[in-house]
Amino acid sequence: MICGFCGHEFDEQQGKKGCGGCPGGCHSVHCPRCNYKNPLEPDLIRSLRKIFSKNDVHKGDE
Ligand SMILES: [Zn+2]
Ligand SMILES: [Zn+2]
Question: Considering the entire predicted model, what is its pTM?
Answer without folding.
Answer: 0.61
